[in-house]
Write a structure and sequence with these properties.
The protein is an alpha/beta fold. The protein is about 35% helix and about 25% strand. The chain is built from 14 helices and 21 strands. The strands form four sheets. A nine-stranded mixed beta sheet has the order 2-1-3-4-9-8-7-5-6, sandwiched between helices. The chain is globular and about 80 Å long. The structure holds xanthosine-5'-monophosphate. Xanthosine-5'-monophosphate (XMP) binds next to loops.
Length: about 525
């Protein structure tokens, strides 16, 4: 494993973003809590430390601090915002409430020749969010930039390999922010950019081989990015020792089952056992309209189906491991450290005692963008690697009302048109998700040809989002919306109205159920 750059989390939402930016600079990073003892941090043999921003004032009682021993440990350190002030204060500088708070885009003036800001424009916009300011830099530090409200907006001490910025270089609103992170990592801390896709794959493959040896592994493929890439990595590591189960619950979108069963299996050479369980799911869903009830039924049927398939395979082969597509944000959010609990939406959490497996989690150090990049590197099709998130219960929670085969067919046709047009417009990557929802119990009057119609509406729900926690409705071009609407109402006769959902999250959720 590579020496990590530790991102010390002072409690803001920025630590994950900083960790990702470090990875973008091709350096491995890990997030640690600010109350981790310095001895523990140093035991991780860090290549550098980055102190994140945080909501507290360094003068507030109980404000989080790292032990000052960190600053004299010889490890290169970059302080950001609160981390910058914390560092300045610990090393004998002054932090004060200057009376000028700065929030949002702020003009920065680069003052001196510097390594941290080398080659960057003398005047540039940076993203600020602070009340306190560093008014005097500690001894040995050169002040390299200022803003109107922050006389010391960036400093560095090249000999000690310490530097800091008041602003947020990790924020997308700081256009030259990534250069600051690169300069710190590569030029001040002297870390070589070696965290590359091939490196990640090599390390994970070695780790999987060490864990699994010559034993057998099972994986539940959903067709989503995480399980597809996780399985491909495990296959690269242990080949035929891996068997995948793909449960087709009949609630997938057009072409998705084939994509997993045929294209993916053929391309990767993975042993994929597809189970067509659509009858079973649809029978269980008969007469059910309540969304939570639907989720429960789909979850329960999924476990039963997967369990039966797992038993069959385990009878043939002695299976000891189960692949999980757990990502690094899940690990961080569940408190880091130990093994993350099985994600409930993976739907294999409730396996019975005699089907206990050890987990193989080849993505648990990775962010989603890294998973996509190694997916491409492993040769998976773009359409799969860039697939939008899709809920486990599938179209079952995109039909408002009872789920039937006929309604699924209608929705599948409308959804396929919306997806095809979005792709044709080259806008796939500009939306986070694009649910199409069938209001199956609603009818409205329309007119088509010479006749009156009495059909169902579908709702287009394209959203932009960073992480699905919050979202905004996508401002798709009118021409695209018009084309989707015309095609759906022309090609799917039972649908006579297409409406657009213009609600953000909150208050709406992304899905309608
Ligand atoms: P909401 O609708 O809560 O969705 O804004 C947030 C994200 O979660 C997905 N989602 C689900 N995923 N099982 C899943 O695996 C579910 O029951 C489920 N419900 C919502 C949704 O597609 C969005 O990405």
């Amino acid at each position: 494993m590579q020496q990590p750059v530790l991102v010390v989390d002072f409690g803001a939402q920025y630590a994950q973003l900083i960790a990702r930016r470090v990875r973008e600079a091709q350096v491995y990073s890990e997030i640690v809590p600010s109350d981790m003892p310095v001895s523990e941090m140093l035991a991780k043999n860090p290549a550098a430390v980055i102190l994140s921003g945080g909501p507290a004032s360094v003068y507030a009682e109980g404000a989080p601090q790292v032990d000052e021993a960190l600053y004299t440990s010889g490890v290169p350190i970059l302080g950001i915002c609160y981390g910058f002030q914390s560092m300045a204060r610990a090393l004998g500088g002054t932090v004060a409430r200057t009376g000028t708070s700065e929030y949002g885009g702020t003009e920065l003036t680069v003052r001196a020749d510097s390594t941290l800001l080398a080659g960057l424009p003398e005047r540039q916009s940076v993203w600020m969010s602070h009340g306190d300011s560093v008014t005097e830099a500690p001894e040995g530090f050169t002040v390299v930039a200022a803003t109107e409200g922050a006389p010391v907006a960036a400093f560095e001490n090249l000999e000690a390999r310490l530097a800091g910025v008041q602003y947020h270089p990790e924020a997308a609103h700081t256009p030259h922010g990534q250069a600051v992170i690169r300069h710190f990592l590569h030029d001040i801390a002297g870390i070589a950019p070696s965290w590359t896709n091939t490196q990640i794959i090599d390390e994970q493959v070695a780790a999987i081989r060490a864990q699994v040896g010559d034993r057998r592994v099972l994986c539940a493929l959903s067709g989503g990015v995480d399980s597809s890439v996780a399985a491909a990595l495990v296959h690269r590591a242990v080949g035929d020792q891996l068997t995948c189960v793909f449960v087709d619950h009949g609630l997938l979108r057009e072409g998705e089952a084939e994509q997993v069963e045929k294209d993916y299996a053929q391309l990767t050479g993975i042993d994929v056992r597809a189970v067509d369980a659509s009858d079973r799911f649809l029978t269980a869903l008969e007469g059910v309209s309540d969304p939570e009830e639907k989720r429960k039924i789909i979850g329960r049927e999924f476990i039963r189906t997967f369990e039966a398939a797992a038993r069959d395979i385990a009878a043939e082969k002695d299976i000891e491991f189960l692949v999980q597509g757990t990502l690094y944000p899940d690990v961080v959010e569940s408190g880091g450290g130990g093994t993350a609990s099985i994600k409930s939406h993976h739907n294999v959490g409730g396996l019975p005692e005699d089907l206990r497996f050890d987990l193989v989690e080849p993505l648990r150090n990775l962010f989603k963008d890294e998973v996509r990049a190694i997916g491409v590197e492993l040769g998976l099709p773009e359409a799969m690697v860039w697939r939008h998130p899709f809920p486990g219960p599938g179209l079952g929670i995109r039909i408002v009302g009872e789920v039937t085969r006929e309604r699924l067919d209608l929705l599948r046709s409308a959804d396929a048109i919306a997806r095809a047009e979005l792709t044709a417009a080259g806008l796939d990557r500009s939306v986070w998700q694009f649910p199409v929802v069938l209001l199956a119990d609603v009818r409205s009057v329309g007119v088509q040809g010479d006749g009156r119609t009495y059909g169902h509406p579908v709702v287009l729900r394209p959203v932009t989002s960073e992480d699905a926690m919050t979202a905004d409705w996508s401002r798709l071009p009118y021409e695209l919306l018009a084309k989707i609407s015309t095609r759906i109402t022309n090609e799917v006769p039972e649908i006579n109205r297409v409406v657009l959902d213009v609600t953000s999250k909150p208050p709406g959720t992304i899905e309608w159920e």
